[in-house]
Amino acid sequence: MSVDSINSLANSQSGVQNSQNIVFKNVEHKVGIMEKAAMSCVKCAKCVPTCTIYSINRDEITSPRGYLDLVQAYSQGRLALDLSLKNAVESCFLCTTCVTQCPMSLPVDFVIERVRVDVAKKYGIPLYKRFLFFLLGKRSVLNLVFSLGFYFNPCLFKDENGRKRLRFGFGNLKNRVITPLNRRSFLQRFNGLIESKNKDSMESNLQDSIKNEKLDSKENIESKSQDSIISIESNPQNPRKVGIYIGCLSNYNYVNVGVSLLKILDRLGIDAFIPGKQECCGAPAFFSGDIKNTTRLIKKNLDYLVPLLSDLDALLVPEATCAAMLLSDWHHALEIESEVFGIDNAEYLSKLESLKKKTFMASKWLHDFTRLDSILSKRKKSQTKITYHDPCHARKVLKIFNEPRNLLKNYALKEMAESSTCCGFGGVTIQSEKYDLAKKIGDKKAWHIAESNAEIVSAECSACRMQIDDSMGRNNVNATFKHPLELIAESLEKT
Ligand code: SF4
Ligand code: SF4
């Protein structure tokens, strides 16, 4: 449900005549983003049983309708923003399960994100987060930090069953499974135009012929005898070209995700363009209430990316969290900044609309707009057992869950129980200050993976990957994690 539709719903339910103000205790009170959603809740409790935090902390205060009650009281000045309220709102995993369960799709996640901005204003952003967000906004410094980390790898980390753990435990990091480090990031290795070498014999896209009405399908579509792949003659004058928005975890840690996407695009005869000055999407800062750092990154990205779009068929994002940021949360963040700081973001909201028209999660675009699905159908089947975890940002926010599964058809897919429940990543605060909560949710996910007997677990999200790898390591689950793009690229490489 959009904030606009909440406006009218909230007004009708509260009997409010003026859409922006209510009279509470004889004082005119400005109705903001938080209160509009809170006033619309009918307390039906449909959201409660599936709430991630409620499943481990059986207290209605930490449940969607509990949050909405608290937020309503806070926004009306009946409840102080004290440490208990701070603790409650920081315990939400922002998984959006409640939004999908609520008959009115009330945006509980958006409300929590909004309150976290007030928390950050009142209590400040902890030093470790300020340092992290500073690094995420300074690519040159972060490149250096990761390169140094790579060279000191053997001193810092030890290998245990193929997973890296810190040698020296401190705080919550003790025994954590750590993400891999690379000497050079994806964006340091790849930049600008990367032309496909397969354009002349392109196993190409039926969608091309639909999109380009000049093409006569009878003349241009031909069967390819070798492996019966329907092929369209290359159109060197107008090759397809897509941009890649890589995301920080794939840029620095899981570089093979981007490399796999390049291999797939190359195989499809599609040129790739990597915008070298792309910035972090701002998710870590946004989920921590640091709205200023978030919107600074959003605006830098919009100023840089939008002018590039006219030359691109699409902008592909191989990470669910980053894709959901661009397609959903950037709008929320710009709205919150306008409400809290009175900044007019109309120009950036308009740029964002242009960006959204061409932005897709990678699996969605490859599935819907190319012949990849058909090409994979002709490939050799693998006996490798895999299971798929649905990232919340993919399944619940972007409604993407069939596409990656279809593209993984060459593997023996065994669904785990509760594949769409949250993995327990939850963001920087949960991973650092509330790691015990992340562990409890992660343990359940690890057990479901173990029960599936899969050799490989896959999900189109590197934040889920970090959390699931850590959970599997703690629970001695031997499955390995691969991004669906890595599995698809491997499948294409097999004859
Ligand atoms: S976003 Fe997830 S954890 Fe937070 S209230 Fe909703 S269901 Fe619960
Ligand atoms: S499902 Fe929606 S309306 Fe019902 S209690 Fe939860 S948030 Fe309120």
UniProtKB/TrEMBL annotation:
Q: Which PROSITE patterns does the record cross-reference, listed alphabetically?
A: 4FE4S_FER_1
Looking at the keywords, is Repeat present? yes
Q: Which UniProt keywords apply?
A: 4Fe-4S, Iron, Iron-sulfur, Metal-binding, Repeat
All residue ranges annotated as the Cysteine-rich domain in the record: 242-326, 386-469
Annotated coiled-coil segments of the chain = none
Q: Name one GO molecular function term.
A: 4 iron, 4 sulfur cluster binding
Every copy of the 4Fe-4S ferredoxin-type domain together lies at 40-105
**What protein am I looking at?**
(Fe-S)-binding protein
Q: What is the organism lineage in this UniProt record?
A: Bacteria, Pseudomonadati, Campylobacterota, Epsilonproteobacteria, Campylobacterales
